[in-house]
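Meet my pick.
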Amino acid sequence: MKNWLARLFGSPVQPAPTPPSAVPALTRIVNPPPSFDLDLAFYRSLAGGSAHAGEMPEGLILDALARLARQPEAAAELVPRVPAVIPQLLRSLRIDATSAGELARQVTQDVSLVAEVIREANSPYYRATARIANIEGALMLLGQNGLRMLLARVAFRPLIGSQGGRLARQAAPLVWNQSEKCAMAASMAAPACGADPFEATLAGLMQNVGLVVALRLADQLGGAAPLPQSDDFAHALLDSARGLSAGIAGLWEFPPGVGQAILQAGQLEATPLAQALHEGDRLSKLRVLCDAGSEQAIELATRLSEGELRMFDKLGSDHE
């Protein structure tokens, strides 16, 4: 895992143009009302949302996460590898001379990937004027940058959606849904923040890898016991998970800014990439909570600016 990621992502990535129908620059930032904490609401949706008897001891989990944070190699062992065709395609995308025909040939080696590419071309993100039914037309619409972002998402899906114990298995669909939407939203927010869209995609996908590790660790420690529900524990676990994500990003030799962005997202003195990640994380969590019927999230969505609402709409059901 480390070696091919180092080859693909270790060197600086040149800024790439945004795809057709790109979202305009954000006109204003709307913060959640004090009574509604998006991170906390997202954690509640992962953990079950209500207090339970026999919860896992908070200190046991947080102490284990702290020890794991000092051993990123051990943390990385809790997530799987990726399909072999993905690094091959990403290597080709770093070579400008690679023809569209060669890319199509490589994509067609994996039937499921063909479906992903055509589905992406017909998604709300690209808003094709007519339905695209063949791989050549899909690749023409996506372009190399769009295909590279799609392949990054495909590569991360088995990492984030991997089977584990009860908690990880139960949370996997929601974690992946938010991760994919975060990557897309962060890439759309990146140009207005002065960040690279592809690095924003990587940061959005990488951010929840540590959360998957934390859930798998909790499964090992707690068996059938539910996760603790206190606000303090929820925030501490999510903070620890982000630290794990940043540590694993460094271990896998991602661009240095990716791990830094994960740690800085939401802070006042944040890098452009961290700002894009924060915006992507905020909108993606809002989207998944709205889709789940949260009244507070739906009320908050009505406060979005026009630019944010366009971005929010692009995170629709076609990417679930």
